[in-house]
Write a structure and sequence with these properties.
Blueprint: E1 3-4, E2 17-22, E3 25-31, E4 68-71, E5 75-78, E6 87-91, E7 96-97, E8 99-104, E9 112-115, E10 120-122, E11 126-129, E12 150-154, E13 160-164, E14 183-188, E15 192-197, E16 199-203, E17 206-210, E18 217-220, E19 224-226, E20 235-236, E21 247-250, E22 258-262, E23 270-275, E24 279-281, E25 284-288, E26 291-298, E27 301-304, E28 308-311, E29 325-330, E30 335-340, E31 343-349, E32 362-365, E33 368-379, E34 382-396, E35 401-405, E36 421-423, H1 425-434, E37 443-447, E38 456-460
Parallel strand pairs: 1-8, 15-34, 29-38, 35-36
Antiparallel strand pairs: 2-3, 4-7, 4-11, 5-6, 6-37, 8-9, 9-10, 12-15, 12-19, 13-14, 13-18, 16-17, 17-18, 20-31, 21-24, 21-28, 22-23, 25-26, 26-27, 29-30, 30-31, 32-38, 33-34, 33-37, 34-35
């Protein structure tokens, strides 16, 4: 079965048909109520019954036994079957995708296929395959890697990039570093610069890093300090670990790295040392005159309240419905908790904005995900450039704020960013695949839309516990509240 689509129709348009979206897959069209009038969102008009379209059988132009559609090149995923419709994703060539729907529409001389998990691709870029859907997770990780490759910090200010000139057999005598490689000295790098290693070579007796995926750009290895990404990870909550909220992360007072537990709320002798950032349950609290002095974290085991950061359960903000996935960030404790509705499922420590570049409180929605993203800007008057940041989730297009990997430090639990929320690589990857919009194998980008928005992100503090809606979350009809 195929459906004919009209381009650029709003969600409840003149013919009075409402588009019903699951994820970003349009699954049905139903008549609007109230005699064709457009009801206000809070008017209390009952929604007509919705019939979800079941998985489609292969259309007649696909051979029997077709189990997936192989992409013959990198393709754009559209929200609706129309090449003018908003792009909501990019899928790499050679990925085999599953489909749920077939439609005809403008801009494609073959069927549009509704793909899993969301959107439509033009059939001109696919070929039938008897293999099941499958592809490579992006960014691609080799076995035992926690980030996709090797990264470094440029430690010599003004270091020049070298470019490779295939016509040049020898370098100028004034530049012995480029002998044997046909390299030409280019622009200097200024400010704080982090690079990724795409290849290495030796030229003129010196090691060079290739720092661009496609361009021939090279840096002397002696000007780069290799970075060691953090192996820190948060903790699952629920049946996997037995942990739930309230829970805490060990954070020793005075900047120490270990904290002692004891056998009683007061006194009781020491029992064991726990490392900083160790997750512990909160089973009971000991208070004196309304002040919590200690928490029980096990049978006959207590820890001073001054040695932990506590995560308490909170109510979902407006905009979260049912079991929607969303994220809560507490700037005071530097704790992020991932929820499904009112059920906490993951907790970790993060690094939000420094005092001079604070992270702004608010209720946001993830509007774009990128498997890797280059980040550039100014820190005060100083430029900075960070190459290929994996698992980036932008939630404020106006300010360019994001949840993203920080492969250059291990200070999670301490503010230290330029306004974004820094995550360890393991946490960033987990959250990237947890939130909406969903990202399938081969997807290098996914974007939310008004018709199918990304997950809610609430950033709050004791000074602003009930922050306002900001950015494109306001277009979703979200209202402030919760907490």
């Amino acid at each position: 079965m195929r459906r004919r689509w009209h381009a650029r129709q709003p969600a409840c348009y003149d013919e009075c048909v409402r588009l019903v979206v699951a994820g970003t897959m349009l699954v049905a069209a139903v008549a609007c109520g109230d005699g064709g009038k457009k009801a206000a969102p809070d008017a209390g008009v009952a929604t007509p019954p919705v019939t979800v379209v079941p998985p489609m059988k292969p259309p007649s132009d696909l051979p029997p036994g077709t189990r997936s559609l192989r992409l013959v090149s990198t393709v754009k995923v559209r929200l609706f079957p129309d090449d003018k419709s908003r792009q909501i994703g990019t899928i790499a060539g050679d990925t085999r995708i599953g489909w749920r729907d077939v439609a005809t529409g403008p801009g494609c001389n073959k069927p549009w296929y509704g793909v899993i998990p969301q959107g439509f691709v033009c059939g001109a870029f696919v070929e039938p395959s008897t293999k099941p859907p499958g592809g490579v997770e992006l960014p691609r990780l080799d076995r035992d890697e926690i980030v996709p490759g090797v990264y470094g910090q440029v430690i010599e200010q003004g270091t020049n990039i070298y470019t490779k000139d295939p016509k040049q057999k020898t370098a100028p005598a004034s530049d012995p570093l480029a002998v044997e490689a046909g390299l030409v000295k280019g622009r200097p790098l200024l400010g704080s610069v982090k690079v990724r290693q795409f290849a290495t070579m030796t030229a003129g007796g010196k090691q060079f890093w290739k720092i661009a995926a496609r361009e021939e750009e090279w840096l002397p290895a002696k000007a780069i300090r290799e970075l060691k990404p953090s192996s820190y990870r948060g903790t699952r909550l629920g049946d996997d670990t037995g942990l739930t909220l309230p829970m805490a992360f060990v954070w020793p007072r005075g900047g120490g790295t270990k904290a002692w537990t004891r056998g009683a709320a007061k006194g009781g002798g020491t029992r064991r040392q726990l490392d900083q950032r160790t997750p512990v349950p909160i089973l009971e609290k000991h208070e004196v005159e309304g002040k919590v002095l200690a928490y029980r974290i096990g049978d006959g085991e207590w820890i001073d309240a001054a040695n932990v950061r506590v995560a308490m359960p909170v109510r979902p903000p407006a905009g979260v419905k049912g079991s929607d996935r969303w994220i809560d960030i507490d700037l005071d404790t530097q704790i992020l908790v991932a929820y499904e509705g009112d059920l906490p499922v993951y907790a970790t420590l993060v690094a939000t904005g420094k005092k001079d570049t604070p992270t702004e409180t608010g209720i946001y929605r993830i509007w774009r995900k990128a498997s890797e993203a280059d980040m550039k800007g100014l820190s005060g008057e100083d430029p900075y450039s960070v190459a290929t940041v994996p698992w980036t989730q932008f939630y404020s297009p106006e300010r360019g704020l994001a949840l993203h990997t920080a492969y250059w430090h291990d200070k999670f639990g301490t503010p230290g960013s330029r306004g974004c929320t820094n995550l360890s690589p393991i946490d960033a990857r987990w959250l990237y695949f947890f939130t909406d919009p969903q990202v399938g194998p081969g997807w290098s980008m996914a974007a939310g839309a008004v018709e199918a928005p990304g997950s809610v992100v609430r950033v709050r503090s004791a000074a602003d516990p009930d922050p306002p809606v900001r950015g494109y979350a306001a277009k979703m009809g979200d209202e402030g509240g919760g907490g």
